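Minutes, project check-in
Item: structure for the 350-residue chain
Input as provided by the requester:
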Amino acid sequence: MVLSLYVVLFLALHLLPGVKSSMANLNNNGYDGIVIAINPGVPEDEKLIQNIKEMVTEASTYLFHATKRRVYFRNVSILIPNTWKSKSEYSMPKQESYDQADVIVANPYLKYGDDPYTLQYGQCGEKGQYIHFTPNFLLTNNLPIYGSRDRVFVHEWAHLRWGIFDEYNVDRPFYISSRNTIEATRCSTHITGINVVFKECQGSSCITRPCRRDSQTGLYEAKCTFIPEKSQTARDSIMFVQSLDSVTEFCTAKTHNTEAPNLQNKMCSSRSTWDVIMDSDDFRNASPMKGTDPPPHPTFSLLKSKQRVVCLVLDKSGSMTIFFLIHLLFIIIMFLFVKFLKIILISLKS
Protein backbone atom coordinates (compact mmCIF):
# COMPACT_ATOMS: atom_id res chain seq x y z
CA MET A 1 0.00 0.00 0.00
CA VAL A 2 2.79 2.43 0.96
CA LEU A 3 4.75 1.47 -2.16
CA SER A 4 1.70 2.17 -4.34
CA LEU A 5 1.31 5.57 -2.72
CA TYR A 6 4.92 6.39 -3.55
CA VAL A 7 4.30 5.48 -7.18
CA VAL A 8 1.20 7.68 -7.44
CA LEU A 9 2.84 10.68 -5.77
CA PHE A 10 6.01 10.37 -7.80
CA LEU A 11 4.22 10.16 -11.13
CA ALA A 12 1.90 13.02 -10.19
CA LEU A 13 4.82 15.30 -9.34
CA HIS A 14 7.02 14.45 -12.31
CA LEU A 15 4.84 13.37 -15.20
CA LEU A 16 1.72 15.52 -14.98
CA PRO A 17 3.51 18.84 -15.68
CA GLY A 18 4.57 17.42 -19.03
CA VAL A 19 1.01 16.90 -20.26
CA LYS A 20 -0.50 20.26 -19.39
CA SER A 21 -2.27 22.13 -22.14
CA SER A 22 -1.15 25.41 -23.66
CA MET A 23 -0.78 28.36 -21.31
CA ALA A 24 -1.93 30.80 -24.01
CA ASN A 25 -5.13 32.66 -23.20
CA LEU A 26 -7.08 35.55 -24.69
CA ASN A 27 -7.70 38.53 -22.44
CA ASN A 28 -9.17 41.82 -23.69
CA ASN A 29 -8.31 41.04 -27.32
CA GLY A 30 -4.68 40.16 -26.56
CA TYR A 31 -3.08 36.72 -26.38
CA ASP A 32 -0.98 36.24 -23.24
CA GLY A 33 1.09 33.27 -22.15
CA ILE A 34 2.29 32.18 -25.59
CA VAL A 35 5.38 29.96 -25.29
CA ILE A 36 7.92 29.50 -28.08
CA ALA A 37 10.50 26.88 -27.12
CA ILE A 38 13.84 26.23 -28.79
CA ASN A 39 14.90 22.58 -28.85
CA PRO A 40 18.14 21.74 -26.97
CA GLY A 41 19.55 20.29 -30.20
CA VAL A 42 19.45 23.67 -31.98
CA PRO A 43 22.88 25.41 -32.08
CA GLU A 44 23.07 28.74 -30.26
CA ASP A 45 22.36 31.68 -32.54
CA GLU A 46 21.34 35.15 -31.35
CA LYS A 47 19.84 35.85 -34.78
CA LEU A 48 17.29 33.12 -34.17
CA ILE A 49 15.83 34.97 -31.18
CA GLN A 50 15.79 38.25 -33.09
CA ASN A 51 13.99 36.70 -36.06
CA ILE A 52 11.40 35.08 -33.79
CA LYS A 53 10.67 38.48 -32.24
CA GLU A 54 10.35 40.14 -35.64
CA MET A 55 8.10 37.37 -36.96
CA VAL A 56 5.70 37.54 -34.00
CA THR A 57 5.63 41.35 -33.97
CA GLU A 58 4.73 41.58 -37.65
CA ALA A 59 2.34 38.63 -37.37
CA SER A 60 0.46 40.38 -34.57
CA THR A 61 -0.54 43.27 -36.84
CA TYR A 62 -1.42 40.92 -39.70
CA LEU A 63 -3.54 38.79 -37.35
CA PHE A 64 -5.24 41.88 -35.95
CA HIS A 65 -6.46 43.01 -39.38
CA ALA A 66 -7.25 39.46 -40.55
CA THR A 67 -9.58 39.02 -37.58
CA LYS A 68 -11.17 42.43 -38.12
CA ARG A 69 -9.48 44.05 -35.10
CA ARG A 70 -10.39 41.26 -32.69
CA VAL A 71 -7.11 39.66 -31.55
CA TYR A 72 -3.35 40.24 -31.46
CA PHE A 73 -0.26 38.83 -29.71
CA ARG A 74 0.49 40.65 -26.45
CA ASN A 75 2.86 38.60 -24.26
CA VAL A 76 5.23 35.95 -25.58
CA SER A 77 7.83 33.86 -23.75
CA ILE A 78 10.81 32.43 -25.61
CA LEU A 79 12.22 29.40 -23.83
CA ILE A 80 16.00 29.20 -24.25
CA PRO A 81 17.50 25.68 -24.04
CA ASN A 82 19.95 24.74 -21.29
CA THR A 83 22.50 23.92 -23.98
CA TRP A 84 22.89 27.66 -24.67
CA LYS A 85 25.05 29.98 -22.57
CA SER A 86 23.38 31.88 -19.75
CA LYS A 87 22.93 35.66 -20.07
CA SER A 88 21.84 38.38 -17.69
CA GLU A 89 18.71 39.10 -19.73
CA TYR A 90 17.43 35.54 -19.29
CA SER A 91 14.90 35.03 -16.50
CA MET A 92 13.89 31.82 -14.77
CA PRO A 93 10.70 30.17 -16.07
CA LYS A 94 7.77 30.04 -13.68
CA GLN A 95 5.48 27.44 -15.22
CA GLU A 96 6.62 27.58 -18.84
CA SER A 97 8.10 24.38 -20.24
CA TYR A 98 9.01 22.76 -23.54
CA ASP A 99 6.12 20.32 -23.14
CA GLN A 100 3.62 23.19 -22.98
CA ALA A 101 5.04 25.18 -25.90
CA ASP A 102 2.67 26.52 -28.54
CA VAL A 103 5.58 26.75 -30.97
CA ILE A 104 8.71 24.64 -31.03
CA VAL A 105 11.85 25.44 -32.99
CA ALA A 106 13.61 22.19 -33.80
CA ASN A 107 15.55 20.43 -36.52
CA PRO A 108 13.56 19.19 -39.53
CA TYR A 109 11.26 16.22 -39.31
CA LEU A 110 11.94 13.95 -42.28
CA LYS A 111 8.40 14.09 -43.64
CA TYR A 112 8.26 17.90 -43.78
CA GLY A 113 11.83 19.13 -44.22
CA ASP A 114 11.90 22.87 -43.56
CA ASP A 115 8.18 23.29 -44.26
CA PRO A 116 6.33 24.83 -41.29
CA TYR A 117 3.50 22.67 -39.98
CA THR A 118 1.02 22.36 -37.15
CA LEU A 119 0.36 19.03 -35.50
CA GLN A 120 -3.42 18.54 -35.56
CA TYR A 121 -5.05 15.41 -34.19
CA GLY A 122 -8.52 16.80 -33.55
CA GLN A 123 -11.68 17.44 -35.50
CA CYS A 124 -12.93 20.71 -36.96
CA GLY A 125 -12.69 23.53 -34.43
CA GLU A 126 -10.42 21.62 -32.03
CA LYS A 127 -7.07 23.07 -31.04
CA GLY A 128 -3.86 21.59 -32.41
CA GLN A 129 -0.84 20.37 -30.44
CA TYR A 130 1.94 22.73 -31.50
CA ILE A 131 3.48 24.63 -34.43
CA HIS A 132 6.85 23.43 -35.71
CA PHE A 133 9.43 25.75 -37.27
CA THR A 134 12.95 24.74 -38.23
CA PRO A 135 15.98 26.96 -37.54
CA ASN A 136 16.62 27.10 -41.28
CA PHE A 137 13.12 28.46 -41.93
CA LEU A 138 13.65 31.20 -39.35
CA LEU A 139 17.20 32.10 -40.38
CA THR A 140 17.13 32.06 -44.19
CA ASN A 141 15.22 34.04 -46.79
CA ASN A 142 12.26 31.85 -47.77
CA LEU A 143 10.17 34.64 -49.28
CA PRO A 144 9.89 33.09 -52.78
CA ILE A 145 8.73 29.77 -51.30
CA TYR A 146 6.50 30.60 -48.32
CA GLY A 147 6.03 34.35 -48.36
CA SER A 148 6.88 36.41 -45.30
CA ARG A 149 7.36 34.54 -42.01
CA ASP A 150 4.75 36.62 -40.18
CA ARG A 151 2.03 35.53 -42.62
CA VAL A 152 3.11 31.90 -42.32
CA PHE A 153 2.85 32.19 -38.54
CA VAL A 154 -0.73 33.49 -38.76
CA HIS A 155 -1.62 30.63 -41.14
CA GLU A 156 -0.22 28.10 -38.66
CA TRP A 157 -1.75 29.87 -35.64
CA ALA A 158 -5.17 29.46 -37.26
CA HIS A 159 -4.53 25.71 -37.45
CA LEU A 160 -3.32 25.58 -33.86
CA ARG A 161 -5.78 27.83 -32.08
CA TRP A 162 -9.01 27.52 -34.04
CA GLY A 163 -8.80 24.06 -35.61
CA ILE A 164 -9.23 25.03 -39.24
CA PHE A 165 -7.56 23.34 -42.20
CA ASP A 166 -5.79 24.05 -45.47
CA GLU A 167 -7.80 25.15 -48.48
CA TYR A 168 -5.36 23.74 -51.02
CA ASN A 169 -4.76 20.07 -51.80
CA VAL A 170 -1.41 18.84 -53.08
CA ASP A 171 -2.89 15.45 -53.98
CA ARG A 172 -5.93 16.91 -55.76
CA PRO A 173 -4.84 20.28 -57.14
CA PHE A 174 -7.75 20.44 -59.62
CA TYR A 175 -11.39 19.39 -59.78
CA ILE A 176 -14.33 19.63 -62.19
CA SER A 177 -16.79 22.25 -60.99
CA SER A 178 -20.58 22.18 -61.17
CA ARG A 179 -20.24 24.36 -64.28
CA ASN A 180 -18.18 21.56 -65.88
CA THR A 181 -14.99 23.62 -65.85
CA ILE A 182 -11.60 22.59 -64.49
CA GLU A 183 -10.82 24.65 -61.41
CA ALA A 184 -7.79 24.83 -59.15
CA THR A 185 -8.47 23.65 -55.60
CA ARG A 186 -8.53 27.00 -53.81
CA CYS A 187 -10.45 29.51 -51.77
CA SER A 188 -11.63 31.83 -52.93
CA THR A 189 -12.25 31.25 -56.63
CA HIS A 190 -11.61 34.97 -57.09
CA ILE A 191 -7.88 34.21 -57.00
CA THR A 192 -6.72 34.18 -60.60
CA GLY A 193 -3.76 32.39 -62.12
CA ILE A 194 -2.43 30.20 -64.91
CA ASN A 195 -2.21 26.42 -65.26
CA VAL A 196 1.19 25.34 -66.55
CA VAL A 197 3.69 22.49 -66.67
CA PHE A 198 7.28 23.37 -65.81
CA LYS A 199 9.60 22.06 -68.52
CA GLU A 200 12.97 23.40 -67.42
CA CYS A 201 14.21 25.72 -64.68
CA GLN A 202 17.53 27.51 -64.23
CA GLY A 203 17.70 29.50 -61.03
CA SER A 204 14.51 31.55 -60.75
CA SER A 205 13.79 31.38 -64.49
CA CYS A 206 11.58 28.59 -65.82
CA ILE A 207 10.28 27.47 -69.20
CA THR A 208 6.62 26.46 -69.05
CA ARG A 209 3.86 25.27 -71.34
CA PRO A 210 0.07 25.24 -70.97
CA CYS A 211 -1.46 22.19 -69.31
CA ARG A 212 -3.11 19.53 -71.43
CA ARG A 213 -6.37 17.85 -70.51
CA ASP A 214 -6.26 14.15 -69.62
CA SER A 215 -8.91 12.34 -71.66
CA GLN A 216 -9.35 9.64 -69.02
CA THR A 217 -9.79 11.82 -65.94
CA GLY A 218 -11.18 14.91 -67.61
CA LEU A 219 -8.71 16.93 -65.50
CA TYR A 220 -5.36 18.41 -66.38
CA GLU A 221 -2.33 16.16 -66.69
CA ALA A 222 -0.54 15.04 -63.53
CA LYS A 223 2.30 17.60 -63.65
CA CYS A 224 0.00 20.58 -64.10
CA THR A 225 0.41 23.36 -61.53
CA PHE A 226 -1.79 26.35 -60.73
CA ILE A 227 0.32 29.51 -60.41
CA PRO A 228 -1.53 32.46 -58.85
CA GLU A 229 -0.88 35.80 -60.49
CA LYS A 230 1.14 38.17 -58.33
CA SER A 231 -1.24 41.04 -58.95
CA GLN A 232 -4.60 40.17 -57.39
CA THR A 233 -7.72 41.88 -56.12
CA ALA A 234 -8.90 38.89 -54.06
CA ARG A 235 -8.43 39.35 -50.32
CA ASP A 236 -8.96 35.73 -49.28
CA SER A 237 -7.85 33.32 -48.20
CA ILE A 238 -5.03 33.05 -45.69
CA MET A 239 -5.52 29.28 -45.52
CA PHE A 240 -4.94 28.93 -49.27
CA VAL A 241 -2.06 31.23 -50.16
CA GLN A 242 -1.11 33.78 -47.51
CA SER A 243 1.98 34.82 -49.50
CA LEU A 244 -0.01 36.98 -51.95
CA ASP A 245 0.14 40.67 -51.05
CA SER A 246 -3.60 41.15 -51.53
CA VAL A 247 -4.58 38.25 -49.26
CA THR A 248 -5.39 39.60 -45.81
CA GLU A 249 -8.55 37.72 -44.80
CA PHE A 250 -10.06 34.29 -44.24
CA CYS A 251 -12.75 32.92 -46.55
CA THR A 252 -16.24 33.81 -45.35
CA ALA A 253 -19.59 32.21 -46.09
CA LYS A 254 -19.92 34.57 -49.08
CA THR A 255 -16.53 33.76 -50.62
CA HIS A 256 -16.04 30.15 -49.49
CA ASN A 257 -15.58 27.55 -52.23
CA THR A 258 -17.66 24.59 -51.08
CA GLU A 259 -16.77 22.50 -54.15
CA ALA A 260 -13.00 22.44 -53.61
CA PRO A 261 -11.74 18.97 -52.55
CA ASN A 262 -9.64 20.30 -49.68
CA LEU A 263 -9.26 19.33 -46.04
CA GLN A 264 -11.24 22.33 -44.78
CA ASN A 265 -14.35 21.20 -46.64
CA LYS A 266 -13.81 17.57 -45.68
CA MET A 267 -13.21 18.15 -41.96
CA CYS A 268 -15.59 21.05 -41.43
CA SER A 269 -18.61 19.94 -43.49
CA SER A 270 -17.93 22.58 -46.17
CA ARG A 271 -18.05 25.46 -43.68
CA SER A 272 -15.85 28.47 -44.30
CA THR A 273 -12.76 29.05 -42.20
CA TRP A 274 -14.16 32.32 -40.86
CA ASP A 275 -17.37 30.62 -39.71
CA VAL A 276 -15.35 28.07 -37.74
CA ILE A 277 -13.14 30.80 -36.27
CA MET A 278 -16.15 32.84 -35.16
CA ASP A 279 -17.54 29.78 -33.35
CA SER A 280 -14.32 29.28 -31.38
CA ASP A 281 -14.05 30.00 -27.66
CA ASP A 282 -11.76 32.94 -28.45
CA PHE A 283 -14.29 34.77 -30.60
CA ARG A 284 -17.60 34.12 -28.90
CA ASN A 285 -17.01 37.04 -26.56
CA ALA A 286 -14.34 38.98 -28.47
CA SER A 287 -15.65 42.24 -29.88
CA PRO A 288 -13.59 44.29 -32.34
CA MET A 289 -11.39 46.94 -30.74
CA LYS A 290 -12.66 50.46 -31.27
CA GLY A 291 -10.78 53.15 -33.12
CA THR A 292 -8.27 52.91 -35.95
CA ASP A 293 -4.99 52.53 -34.05
CA PRO A 294 -2.92 49.38 -34.60
CA PRO A 295 -2.42 47.02 -31.65
CA PRO A 296 0.53 47.54 -29.28
CA HIS A 297 3.67 45.58 -30.06
CA PRO A 298 4.11 42.26 -28.23
CA THR A 299 6.34 42.08 -25.18
CA PHE A 300 8.87 39.25 -25.00
CA SER A 301 10.37 37.37 -22.07
CA LEU A 302 13.52 35.31 -22.55
CA LEU A 303 13.46 32.36 -20.16
CA LYS A 304 16.14 29.83 -19.35
CA SER A 305 16.01 27.31 -16.53
CA LYS A 306 19.04 26.31 -14.50
CA GLN A 307 20.28 22.77 -14.35
CA ARG A 308 18.45 20.93 -11.59
CA VAL A 309 20.67 19.79 -8.74
CA VAL A 310 19.48 16.76 -6.79
CA CYS A 311 20.95 16.11 -3.35
CA LEU A 312 20.52 12.79 -1.60
CA VAL A 313 21.03 12.70 2.15
CA LEU A 314 21.65 9.29 3.69
CA ASP A 315 21.14 8.59 7.37
CA LYS A 316 24.08 6.44 8.52
CA SER A 317 23.16 6.46 12.20
CA GLY A 318 21.43 3.12 11.99
CA SER A 319 17.95 4.52 12.60
CA MET A 320 16.95 4.14 8.96
CA THR A 321 15.41 0.75 8.45
CA ILE A 322 15.90 -1.47 5.46
CA PHE A 323 12.29 -0.70 4.50
CA PHE A 324 13.01 2.99 3.94
CA LEU A 325 16.30 2.25 2.21
CA ILE A 326 14.40 0.19 -0.34
CA HIS A 327 11.93 3.04 -0.82
CA LEU A 328 14.77 5.52 -1.27
CA LEU A 329 16.37 3.31 -3.88
CA PHE A 330 13.01 3.00 -5.63
CA ILE A 331 12.60 6.79 -5.76
CA ILE A 332 16.10 7.22 -7.22
CA ILE A 333 15.38 4.65 -9.92
CA MET A 334 12.02 6.24 -10.74
CA PHE A 335 13.59 9.70 -10.91
CA LEU A 336 16.20 8.52 -13.41
CA PHE A 337 13.54 6.69 -15.41
CA VAL A 338 11.33 9.78 -15.69
CA LYS A 339 14.31 11.94 -16.71
CA PHE A 340 15.09 9.42 -19.45
CA LEU A 341 11.44 9.31 -20.52
CA LYS A 342 11.25 13.10 -20.81
CA ILE A 343 14.36 13.14 -23.01
CA ILE A 344 12.72 10.58 -25.30
CA LEU A 345 9.46 12.58 -25.44
CA ILE A 346 11.30 15.81 -26.29
CA SER A 347 13.25 14.09 -29.07
CA LEU A 348 10.02 12.64 -30.49
CA LYS A 349 8.30 16.04 -30.31
CA SER A 350 11.08 17.64 -32.30
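Outcome recorded: Residues 22-163+280-330 form one domain.
No further action items on this chain.
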